[in-house]
Structure formats: C-alpha cells, structure tokens
Amino acid sequence: MKNFDSLAASWWQLNGPSRLLHRMNSTRVMFIQQAIHNRPMHKVLDIGCGGGIFTETAARIPGVKHVDGVDVSESVLEVARAHASIDKAVHSKVSYLKGPIEDVTSLTKESYDVVSLFEVLEHVDSPSKLIEEAMTYTKPGGSIVLSTINRTVLSYLTTIFMAEKILKLVPDGVHSWSKYINYGEIKEFVDKKPGWNMSLAKGSMYVPTQGWILNNCPSEGNYFMALER
Amino acid sequence: MLRIGFQPAFRCLARHYSTAIKDIDVAIVGAGPAGLSLAASLACHPATEHLKLMVVDGADLSQLDKWAPTSFDNRVVSLTPNTRQHLIDIGAWTHIDSLRVQDYNEMRVWDGQSNARLNFDSDDVDQDAIAYMIELKNLQRGILNRVREFPSVQIFDNSKLESIKPSRNGWPGDEWPIIHIPGHAFRARLLVGADGANSPVRHYAGIESTGWDYGMGLVASLRLEYDDLSAIAWQRFLPTGPLAMLPMPDGHASLVWSTTAANANLLKSVSDEAFIALVNAGFRLEPVDLAYLFSLTDSDQIVDEVSWRLSTVCDGLVDGTDVPLPVVHVEHKSRAGFPLKLRHADRYSAPRIALVGDAAHTTHPLAGQGLNMGQGDVQSLATVLQKAAELGQDIGSQLVLDQYWGDRYIVNNALLGVIDKLEKLYSVSAWPVVAARSWGLEILNEITPLKRFLMKQASK
Fold first, then answer.
1. Which chain A residue shows the shortest CA-CA distance from B22?
2. What are the helix and strand counts (H, E) for chain A?
3. For A100-141, what is each residue's pLDDT tens digit?
4. Domains, chain B, ranges and CATH?
5. What part of B 172-191 touches A (C-beta under 8 Å)?
6. Which residues pair with B235 in a beta bridge?
7. Of A29, A64, A86, which has the smallest distance from its Cβ to B391's Cβ?
8. How confident is the model over B360-416, as pLDDT tens digits?
9. Contacts of B390 in chain A (CB under 8 A)
10. For the domain bounded by A2-228, which CATH number is listed?
11. What is the ipTM of this complex?
C-alpha cells in the first residue's frame, strides 16, 4: 500500500509511472465486451480502483448508470475524486469509498452487473477471500472480471526483472512474484463454487507500438478472466 | 472564407467576467469543408451522436445561403472518388447541387518542354470517374446544410475566435481549453483546429509547422469554344509551373496556373482578350515563346503576338485531343491569385487538441490532393473518436488523439513529399533532367498495370 500512496500524485500522468495502466484501459473494456456480449451493464463495482482509470471509463460505457470504486489507499482515492470532478459526464456517475471491501457496509449485496478486480489479486494477502467477497456483490446473471499475473518464470522475467528493474516501465517494488496467481488456480477455485463458472479467459501482453493485446494463452504472463454467476 | 483573429487581451477581460462558461464535448474551429465534414461525421454515427458539438467561424455563412450564381465560381476543387463516397456516407452529397458538379474520366498530362505525354482514363481505376470538379461554395454549402440537420451541433458564424486559454482548475498538462467567442465561452473536452494554414489552434497547442513557399497560383473561370461533351482534365508542366484546365459543366472550365509572382501579376492585370490569348498560348507554344510573351506589358501587343505565333505553328496539335479546346471567354472578376506553399505540422495531436485539413498541412495544387487529404484526416479522426467512445475512453485524451496522428501523418507526409518532388522535377529546364523525366513519363504511359496502381493510390 505504501507503494501506491507515493504513486498517487502522478497517477493520471499519461506518460508517468502509471502509463501501462492507462494503456491497459481500452483492452479491459474490449475484454468485458467480449465476455458480457449484450448482457446489461448498468451498475459496476470496481474493487481496487486506484486513481479511477477504469472507474471513469466504466462510467462512460454506453448503458452504465453508476460505478462504485473502492480502494484501501485514501491518498489515491483523493486523486480519484479530484480527477472525476473535472468531467461532468463522469462526476455524477461515480462514487469512491475507502476499503478494504470486507469493511464496507454501505454497498448493496448482489446488486452489481459487473464487479471488477483489475490488477488487484496479486497485491492482497488472501486473493481467494477477495474473490468470494466480490461474489457476494454480483447479481444473479452478472459477472466478475479480473486481471492478474501468472506465477511463472517467464512472468518474473517480464513483469519484474524487465519491467521494473531494467526498462523501468513499472515503478520498482510494485509487484512481488510470490503473490502472483496462476490462471489454473483461480479456475479450480471457481469450479468448486456452485452457481459459478468461468466464462472467458484471455492472455494479455504489452506490445510497444500497439499497447496491450489479447491472446489465447491465459496461463502465461498477464491474463483476464470472466466469472459468470 | 475563414477569418479568425485575436483581439487585444485587455478587451477580453471585461467580457470574460460576464460570460458563463458552458461545457462542450467537441469544439471545431473553422467551418470549411474539413470542419463541417467532421461535425457531420460525428453527429451521424451512433457511437458519437450523443456528443455536444459546436462549429465556429468568423465568416458569415449566410452568404452561402444567398449564393445564387449565374456563372461558375473561380475557387473549385477536385474530389477523389474516396472523398465523394465519404460525403455520401455522412449524408452530405444529397445537399450538393449536382448539376454544378463535373465528373471527369480522362486526364492528359504532358511535359511542356519535351511533350512527353501521360494519359489516364477511368478504365485505369475501377471507378466511374477519376475525380469530380466542384465549386468550393457548392461543397461547403452542401455539408453545412447537412450539419444543420443535427440538433446536437451548434453553429456560430460571424464569430471571431477571441481567445483560447487552458482551464484554471484543470488537471496539470491535461487542461480543458476554454474558448471565447463574442457573447459565449466554452470549455471543450476536445478542441479541433480546422482553421486553415495559419491555425490559431495550432499556435495555442505550440505545434510547429515547417515547409517552404512556391510561386503564385492564378485561378479563373472560363468558357471554351464549344461543349464537346468530353470531360478531360488537362495539365501541362511548364518550367515556371504547371498549367491546368479542369472541366466544368456545359463547356465551361476552371483554370489553375501555378507560376511566378511576376507572371501571375501580369495575368491579373492584362485585358480579358490578352488573358485568353495567354491561356491558349500556354497550352500550345514553346516555353521560350511564353517567356517572351510574359515579358510584354501591352495587352494588344500580347494578343497580336499570340495570334501570329499560333497561326504559324504547324506541329499538328489538335484541339480537344492534344490540347484543350480554345478559351473564348473569361468570367468577369474571376481572375484571382493566391500564394502557393508547402507546410506540414510536426504533430496533429496534443492533449485535448487535434488538427485537420490545412491546419495540419498545405500542398501544391498540381495533384489536386489538398482538400482530399483534409477529408481523409476527417475520416480517420472520426473513426478513432468513434472507437474510443465505444470503449468508454475520454475522447480528448492524448492517448486517443495520438492514434489519429499516427494513422495520418505518414500517409500525408509521403503524399506531400511526392507532390513536392514533382513540382521540383518539372521546374528544371536542364536537358538531362528533361530527357530522363520524359522517358520515365512515356514508359509509365505504356505500362498499364503500373498506371492503374498509381491512379488507385491517388484516388484514395
């Protein structure tokens, strides 16, 4: 969390320390649109919303009426609120609450069409508890969409060694490899949950002139998953 | 057409305090074909039809409504099939007076010094025509009337842009621009500069534009000896610059003579008879004869000299086949000159700024591509914004706008480069260059597949 507090001020610089997150944005929406097809998306819960990059985008997607963003860092939430206040189209549709989500009482259970956990699971001590918490907020027929990183030698090389230490595309120390979660581990966990199944999974990688592209190898590197209720 | 100026800063302060600032999604500065086409493209597409748009221009657009000409205007442009299709797609083509549009399916181009020839016809491309000649006013009025059909677009004409300033409570480096026009102030999510070669929006964004000047372009509206019902575009490359005659309906034609400033001044100042004589001579006589004629100042003498030379020249040039039909009439007050130049902006995008059309690039008219490049910009920017809106992106974000810049810059740069090289190639008189380029032209004339390929590229 200390890492994110210090990133707060520069969160919205498009070419700053969070630049890869900004470039992930449209890929996240494309994945959601593939996973959800034409099912309704009116209410969204963005867990680990950070400075609100995805939260604001979700508020702009045609049909979305409200987005709640939750994060554990108060300084980052302040940045999120300040940024959202600039854009009237977004301002009235987003709300930011201090987490962790387990401590939040003001949000309605089972009321969200989409609950998002983008780049969150690899930063918490108990990812399975967090997924379960997210499940309690999902409407029947709704979905959880998440993105995280596989715990493989390749992902260490790309996301930590190259990205943080050598190319400095990501601020140093943001990720710790032991917290990475394999795609198979989440799938196994979800398969045991009655009423839930994994509806879509895609791998994702960053190509310098094209941004983040989706591929069909969710077991390597970064990946997206959609869990349907 | 576009008149935008800045008033001194102190005059702005009084107005600023009394004007409430309204939010707008896209503010388009400039109501020329590029600006209006962008407004129509965004307003008619489902992904962007919800955006609040405005178009602002210092000119009085009601003049277009009052335009009821008895003759053809002197400012005409050549539309490629791609541009025409785009205008159809955005619903603007039906508002254009098609009786005043001339499609042409043949081009005859030749070297003024060696007479090497290159002929194109529309069989070389899979289209009904190579291009379409249209008066600029007809085009502008047509797109304007389409834009007027959308309640989501506010049009402010007779409105000089007073100032552009970054919003004071914006995000550092990403401030929404605030524009002041008489009686109104707007805070724009995206500010588009469709405001011509001296673009104030480009200056606000701090974007540099580099290039160089050519000579002068002289335009005129002409009537030919008779209407031979063929629609052919003629262009002769003289050492002083290309001389083009573009077909218009009913035996009329439009002249675009790119030449030196001194020659342009002569063409503007002599009598109608002398002017007609010089145009007819321009397509038929040798450059050395033309140089002599342009050194004269007396209109009657020019008429006599041309008449004598044309009667003694017996190299079998056939009117309507090798050269255009003779000009017999020039429309009153239709002779006008404008400076020719090449300019290219370093970038087309900045945070919350995009440039389209002449604001981004200007080129030599010899290939008839300038306006079409602008329409290509509009198509690209509209597509980028539509995709971004579908993905919930902030359309003013530089991440979005840079995609437009990347899409158009290389294409435009290449075309500007080719046109510039052609201008330079054909301004040389040294015989090795003339021989080489003539040989190249004649070979090209014989290689039909290559000709077809080039024509397809040019009509994109």
1. A88
2. 8, 8
3. 999 998 999 999 999 999 999 988 888 889 999 999 999 999
4. 15-99+135-208+346-423 (3.50.50.60), 106-133+214-339+426-458 (3.30.9.10)
5. 173-174, 176, 189
6. B109, B244
7. A29
8. 999 988 888 899 999 999 999 999 999 999 999 999 999 999 999 999 999 999 889
9. 62
10. 3.40.50.150
11. 0.90
